[in-house]
Design a protein that fits this description.
Chain lengths: 309, 291
């Protein structure tokens, strides 16, 4: 009797294992959260030092157009105006998303609606292969092929927003394509069946039903692509020219937050204004990726509500 | 259940053995010596090659060499994180560095030459013309006797040692106009080679037939002209240490300064030996003749 009582009251082996597993996974989770917080803390502590230790006006930092930390600009203040980089980053991100979206959606529609078998066999592996190519290879091709092409076709030196757009277009295409395809695949089959039963052609079904139903998913795909474009450093750095000037047109040399960061960080001393200013750029990058993340979550939640209705 | 227990036990034993091994390894590496040198990518090849030779001659000694840029080298040696900080520039020239806390060892000299695209049609510039081009006053090669081509400036990254040297000694301390920037000499050269009307500057070791090296005031960028200071655009390569470097650091720096390294390795890698210099330059740019 007592034995049964004891075995009932004692924790079973299964529950012990479960508890152990729980503890292990919780520790992993806590560790990752800790790392994320530490990164935020570190970047913020360095990035904010520009404003609190070196007393740079925050709005001047965002709106200034001269970038040469360590020297004083025309207004007598240290020249830490990040506007050229911010404008460059946003322009290149938005332009590459605009160029890539039609191609990506077209490919995704072909892959899922028009020729699913060939899509699964050929197109999907090919686009996934594009993801695996290292960014330095994209940058090198950009330098050797895209830059001369832009120079001969559009004039200028070839280095600038336009070349960067072309390179990023190819780089974000696979991300946007495969995520759009997933979104299209997720549209319930009975939507298509109902549409066809009502007498709609295949094109009408795709255009009026499937694409509309997949809008939230495709928006998420585009924002994901933009996040990647915004954070890309090496490939862009090789073709954009890295001039801290406000872009006059699409073929004049410009710069992005990431390109200035990677170029400058090895040449500055930790704790100096030059270094802090670069950390401020990193902080802007981090905040922007946070914004992209939030947009994706917002779209995802809204999309769910629409589908349930 | 039993099996997994055994595996767990084995895993624990393995970890224990590895930790023990690591601990004993630590003891031996401490007994044999190692130093770390960090900084300038322009100086890295020389220190790396000298370090390898030194380790092969002295068993149990390791010289770790890492890049990161002159700024990194100077800040790391200032905090005492490494034994040697490699730099292209004087510590006095870098913001945020207390030069009085560091000891300077000049181990080599590097000449820097302006390079232009081959189809520009210019081979010589006066220093006034060079300054006017880099400060953005002259915008077309026609103004200096070349073809009707817009000038494309290609600078090295802000804070790069090559750029600081070029601005100090080629542009007489003027700042270059805002323009394209590249973070490596190799990339700057290949861009100049492929972009019509482009001008940049690289160390002598990067000169090749893909670009034209400019003469300045009729002086050719050659090692002989650097040695007697007829060619002004050159800089020292510095190894910075703390005021009291340890024995191995001292020995290694003496080794780099020895005739064996200076006569062979330094030349092979495209640097100029400090022993061959007929002049000396201080951090403020003052020139004195070496007797």
């Amino acid at each position: 009797m007592d034995k049964i009582r004891a075995s009932l009251l004692k924790k079973s082996i299964a529950s012990k294992i479960e508890r152990r597993g729980k503890i292990i996974s919780l520790t992993c989770l806590a560790l990752i959260i800790l790392v994320v917080f530490l990164i935020f803390y570190f970047v913020a502590s360095r990035g904010l030092a520009t404003f609190f230790q070196n007393h740079i006006n925050f709005w001047q930092f965002l709106s200034g157009t001269q970038w040469n930390p360590g020297t004083t600009g025309t207004n007598g203040q240290p020249a830490v105006g990040a506007l050229p980089m911010i404008v460059g980053s946003f322009l290149i991100t938005i332009l590459s998303a605009i160029v890539a979206t039609p191609f990506a959606i077209g490919t995704a529609v072909f892959m899922t609606e028009i020729s699913p078998r060939r899509g699964a066999q050929i197109l999907r592996p090919v686009t996934e292969l594009l993801v695996g190519i290292p960014s330095v290879v994209y940058g090198f091709i950009g330098l050797q092929v895209v830059v001369p092409f832009v120079r001969n076709t559009f004039g200028g030196s070839g280095y600038g927003i336009l070349s960067g757009t072309f390179v990023l277009f190819v780089m974000i295409l696979p991300t946007v394509t495969s995520m759009s395809a997933d979104a299209l695949n997720a549209v319930p089959r009975y939507y298509r069946e109902a549409s066809l039963a009502l007498g709609a052609t295949r094109w009408q079904t795709i255009y009026k039903v499937v694409l509309r139903a997949a809008i939230p998913g495709m928006l998420t795909a585009i924002v994901f692509g933009m996040a990647r474009a915004f954070g890309e450093a090496l490939a862009v750095q090789m073709v954009i020219g890295n001039a801290t000037l406000l872009p006059q047109n699409l073929v004049s040399p410009a710069s992005t937050l990431t390109s200035i960061l990677t170029m400058g960080i090895g040449n500055t001393v930790m704790g100096s204004l030059q270094n802090n200013a670069l950390w401020s750029l990193a902080m802007i990058l981090l905040l922007m990726s946070l914004v992209f993340n939030m947009v994706i979550r917002y779209i995802g939640r809204k999309g769910k509500l629409n589908n349930e209705r | 259940m039993k099996k997994s227990r055994v595996i767990q036990l084995l895993g624990l034993i393995l970890i224990g053995v590895l930790v023990g091994l690591g601990y004993s390894q630590r003891a031996t590496t401490d007994a044999s010596e190692s130093i770390t040198a960090v900084g300038s990518t322009a100086l890295q090849p020389l220190v790396e090659a000298a370090g390898e030779q030194y380790s092969s001659e002295h068993t149990g000694v390791f010289i770790n060499v890492q890049g990161g840029g002159s700024g990194t080298g100077l800040s790391q040696i200032q905090t005492g994180a490494v034994a040697i900080g490699n730099s292209d520039i004087f510590a006095e020239e870098q913001a945020g560095i207390k030069a009085s806390k560091l000891k300077d060892h000049r181990v080599a000299v590097v000449g820097i030459a302006p390079i232009i695209n081959k189809k520009t049609g210019v081979t010589n510039l006066t220093s006034q013309e060079l300054t006017a081009i880099f400060t953005g006053k002259i915008k077309n090669w026609q103004a200096v006797g070349g073809k009707n081509l817009p000038i494309v400036l290609i600078n090295r990254a802000q804070g790069s040692g090559t750029r600081k040297t070029f601005e100090s000694y080629a542009l007489n301390g003027r700042k270059s106009a805002d323009s394209q920037e590249q973070d490596s000499s190799g990339l700057a050269r290949s861009i100049v080679a492929s972009t019509p009307g482009a001008i940049s500057y690289v160390a002598f070791s990067y000169l090749d037939t893909s670009v034209t090296a400019l003469q300045v005031n009729g002086v050719k960028p050659t090692e002989a002209n650097v040695k007697n200071n007829h060619w002004h655009i050159w800089s020292y390569e510095h190894l910075y240490t703390g005021l009291q470097p340890n024995q191995l650091t001292k020995k290694f720096i003496n080794y780099i300064l020895s005739a064996a390294v200076q006569k062979k390795l330094v030349k092979q890698l495209g640097y100029i030996s400090v022993h061959d210099m007929q002049v000396q330059r201080s951090a403020t740019g003052k020139i004195t003749t070496v007797k």
